[in-house]
Recover the amino acids of this structure.
C-alpha cells in the first residue's frame, strides 16, 4: 500500500532519487515511485533543479494515472514548465486520468489552442464534455473550483439502498455527505455519512435528511464559498445552478487552497505586486506588474521634489533641515502602514466592521498620539543636542514627527474604510495612497513649522 | 431543526434582533435564537454595538449549552469582553458544555486565577482533568489544538462491531475516520468511514486498515500539522505522544483556522505589528507592539541625518539636491519591499527553495535593472528639465535611482533567505532591515555620485 512518509524518510528518498537521476538509474527510481504517495512525489519535484524535474517527470509520465495524480498535487506553478515538452496526445492521455475539476484547472493554464486540441483527443467523451462545461465558469467562482462528480440519490431511496450504492460506486473519491435530489436533480437535502450508518436501514432518506442544506450557486465567489464552509465547519458544500439543480460540490481541501491563495494574494497586493511573479520568468512581465505602485511612488517623489524646492528659502537658511527629511517621512510611512494593515486585514476577516468606524479611528488616534509624543521627544532631543544651530531645530523636528505620525495613523485607518465603502479593493489601493499622502503631508508639516519657528 | 441561513435571511434576522434589543423584547429574541444556527448567532454579534453585544449575550447565556456553542463560534477576540461580567460559577456551567479543546482555548485567554477557579467549579471531573491536561500543551502545537475526544477501537474488532460502536457513541462529534489501536492505546492504523461501510462486516479492522497512517506528535508545531493535512488532503490527523499512544486528533476545521491565523500573523509581522492589536484596547499595549519596528526606523533616521549632515558641503553647493532625497529613498524602499514580500511568502508556501538561491536572485536582479533603468531615465530627465542648474543634476538623480533600485532588489531577495538560513523568522526581520539598508545606502549612493559629478 502506498502511504505517507515523514520528514526523515522523505529526506532519504530525496537523496536516493537525486543520486539515481544522476546515474540515469531509471529502474531504481520507478521502484521508489511505486512505494511513494503522489503528494510526496510532488514534494520531491520542489526540491529538484529544473533539469532534474524534467528528467523525473519523463519517468513519471510512463504511467498516465500516476502522472495525473502527481500533476494534481503539484499545482499551477509547475504545470506550464513540465508540460511544454509533451505532445497533445500524451497530454490528453494524462488529462483523461485527472478528476474533471483538476483537468479544467490544468487546461485553463495552457494556451487556448493547445487545450482545445487536448480535449479533442480525449477518449472519454463524457469526461471531455464535463471538463468543457467547467471551463466555461469563471475560475474564481464555485463553478470554477467545484467537482462535478458528486454522490447524490433520490429522496425515496432507503438508508440501506444508499449504503449499497456507495459500496458500488468507486468513481466518487470524496464521499462525506449524501446529497438528496428529486428526479430533476433539484437539491432537496443532505445527510452525513455518519448519520447514514446510524439510521434505521429501511427509512427513506427523505425522512432523515437535513431539508435545508447550506449551498452555493455556480456563480458564488470562491472567497464566499470558503467563508460558508468555514462558518459551518463543513467538509463539502453543494453547488447548484440557477434552477437549484445539483451541479457539483466544493470539498474542504479546495477551500484550504482558496484560503491560502487569497491570503497570499492580499499580501502581494498590499506590496503592489502579484502572485504571477512567482510563475513568470520574464523580467518585462514582472516589471509591468510592479509598475503601478512604483509609478505612484515616482509621481509622489516628483511632487515632493517640487514641494521641497518651494521651501528653498528655509533650506538656504538652515541646511541642517535636509538631514531630518528621511526620518520624518520614514516614521510617518511606517506607522501609517501599520494602521492600514490592521484595518485592511481586519476588514477582510470580518473582525472590523465598517459600520462602526468611530471606535477604530479613536483607538488608532490614541496610539498615534502616544507614539508621536514619544518619538517626537526622542528625536527632538537628539536634534537639539547634536546640531548646535539653530537652537529651535529640536522643537521643529519634534513637533513635525508628532504631527506627521498622528496624521499618518488617521490616514492609515480612514483610507481603507473609505475605499471599501466606495467599492475599491482596499488591499490594492491603501498602501500607495497612505505612503504618498504621508510623504507629502510630512514635508508640508515640517517646512511650515520650520518657517514659522526659525526666523 | 436548526439550519444555516443565507445572506438575505441573515440581514432580516439581524434587523429584527436589533429592533427587539432596543425594545428589550427578550422573548421575541429567544424565539429567533431557537431557530438560528450557533454560527449565525455568533455572526450576529459581529454586527452589533458593544452594548447590544452584552445584552444579547445576557439572553444567550440563559441556556448554557447554547452559550457554549456560540462562544465556540465567536472565537478569541470577543471572549474577553463578554465573559468579564460573568461570575465563576456561571462561566463554569458554560465551559462544562464546551468541547474540551475549545474549553482549553477559552480558559487560556482568561487570567490564570479565574481559569483555575472555573476549573475547580466544574461538575464533570473527567472533563476538567482533560481540559487541565490540554492547558499544559503549548498553544501553538498539535497538543494545544487537538480534540482529545477521538473515536478509536482495538484491532481485533470487526467492521460490524465498529459500525455498531459508532451508532452508540454520540459524544464524538466528528467521526470521519476510525483509528485503530492496541490495548495500550498505541496507534496502529486508520480506516475511513467510507472504507468501513464498504468492507465485509465480519473482517477484523486489522485486515482492512491502512497500517501506516499519517500522524503528528503532541509537540508538532501547528503550522506543520496544517501542512500535513493539506498535503494529503485529510479530514483529520491523529496526534500521538512520545510513546506513540493516541492522544487526540486535529480536524480540518481547526486546520483552516490555523492557516488563516498564520497568514494574518505573517502579514502583521511584515508590517511590524501583531494580531493582538485587534483585541487590545490599551493604546500603551499597542504602542509596545509597534515599538521595535518604529525604533528601528528611528535609529535608521538618526543615522541618516548624520549621513546627510556629513554631505553638507555638497548640499551647500547645490541646495536642489535635497529635493530628490525622498524619491530616491521611496523608490528603493518600495521595490525592495516588493522583492522581499515575494521571497518571504514564497518561502513560507514552499514555492521558493532556499537551496536554489541563484535563479531567484538573478531574476530579481534583471527586474531591478530594468525598472531602475526606466525610472532612472524618467526621473533624470524630469530633474534635468525642471531644475536649470546644475546641468548634471539629472544625471546624478538618474544614476542614483537606478543604482539604489538595483541595490534594493538585491537586499530584498538576499535578506529573507539569509534570515531563514540562520533561523531568524524572515517575516519579522526582513522589512525593517530592507528599508533601513536601502535608506542608508540610497543616501550614500546619491551624495557620492553628486560629489563626484558636480564639481
Amino acid at each position: 500500500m502506498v502511504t505517507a512518509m515523514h520528514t526523515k524518510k522523505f529526506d532519504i528518498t530525496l537523496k536516493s532519487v537525486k543520486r539515481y537521476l544522476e546515474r540515469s538509474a531509471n529502474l531504481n527510481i520507478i521502484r521508489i515511485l511505486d512505494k511513494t504517495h503522489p503528494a510526496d512525489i510532488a514534494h520531491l519535484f520542489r526540491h529538484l533543479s529544473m533539469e532534474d524535474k524534467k528528467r523525473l517527470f519523463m519517468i513519471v509520465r510512463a504511467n498516465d494515472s500516476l502522472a495525473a495524480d502527481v500533476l494534481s498535487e503539484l499545482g499551477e506553478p509547475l504545470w506550464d514548465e513540465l508540460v511544454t515538452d509533451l505532445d497533445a496526445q500524451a497530454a490528453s492521455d494524462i488529462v483523461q486520468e485527472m478528476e474533471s475539476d483538476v483537468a479544467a484547472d490544468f487546461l485553463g493554464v495552457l494556451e487556448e489552442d493547445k487545450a482545445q486540441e487536448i480535449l479533442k483527443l480525449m477518449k472519454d467523451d463524457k469526461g471531455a464534455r464535463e471538463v468543457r462545461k467547467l471551463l466555461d465558469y469563471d475560475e474564481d467562482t464555485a463553478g470554477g473550483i467545484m467537482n462535478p462528480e458528486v454522490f447524490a440519490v433520490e429522496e425515496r431511496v432507503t438508508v440501506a439502498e444508499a449504503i449499497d450504492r456507495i459500496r458500488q460506486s468507486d468513481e466518487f473519491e470524496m464521499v462525506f455527505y449524501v446529497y438528496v435530489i428529486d428526479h430533476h436533480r433539484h437539491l432537496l437535502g443532505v445527510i452525513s455519512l455518519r448519520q447514514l450508518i446510524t439510521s434505521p436501514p429501511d427509512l427513506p432518506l427523505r425522512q432523515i435528511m437535513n431539508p435545508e442544506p447550506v449551498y452555493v450557486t455556480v456563480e458564488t465567489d470562491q472567497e464566499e464559498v470558503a467563508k460558508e464552509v468555514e462558518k459551518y465547519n463543513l467538509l463539502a458544500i453543494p453547488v447548484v445552478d440557477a434552477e437549484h439543480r445539483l451541479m457539483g460540490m466544493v470539498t474542504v481541501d479546495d477551500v484550504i487552497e482558496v484560503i491560502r491563495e487569497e491570503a497570499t494574494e492580499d499580501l502581494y497586493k498590499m506590496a503592489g505586486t502579484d502572485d504571477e511573479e512567482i510563475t513568470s520568468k520574464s523580467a518585462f512581465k514582472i516589471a509591468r506588474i510592479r509598475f503601478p505602485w512604483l509609478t505612484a511612488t515616482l509621481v509622489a517623489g516628483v511632487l515632493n521634489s517640487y514641494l521641497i524646492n518651494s521651501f528653498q528659502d528655509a533650506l538656504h537658511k538652515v541646511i541642517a533641515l535636509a538631514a531630518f527629511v528621511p526620518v520624518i517621512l520614514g516614521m510617518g510611512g511606517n506607522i501609517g502602514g501599520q494602521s492600514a494593515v490592521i484595518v485592511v486585514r481586519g476588514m477582510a476577516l470580518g473582525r472590523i466592521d465598517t459600520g462602526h468606524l468611530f471606535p477604530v479611528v479613536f483607538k488608532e488616534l490614541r496610539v498615534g498620539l502616544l507614539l508621536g509624543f514619544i518619538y517626537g521627544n526622542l528625536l527632538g532631543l537628539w536634534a537639539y543636542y547634536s546640531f548646535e544651530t539653530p537652537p529651535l531645530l529640536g522643537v521643529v523636528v519634534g513637533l513635525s514627527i508628532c504631527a506627521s505620525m498622528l496624521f499618518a495613523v488617521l490616514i492609515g485607518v480612514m483610507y481603507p474604510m473609505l475605499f471599501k465603502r466606495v467599492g475599491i479593493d482596499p488591499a490594492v489601493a491603501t498602501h500607495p495612497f497612505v505612503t504618498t499622502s504621508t510623504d507629502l503631508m510630512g514635508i508640508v508639516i515640517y517646512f511650515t513649522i520650520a518657517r514659522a519657528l526659525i526666523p
User: Anything to note?
Assistant: The longest strand of chain B covers residues 187-192.
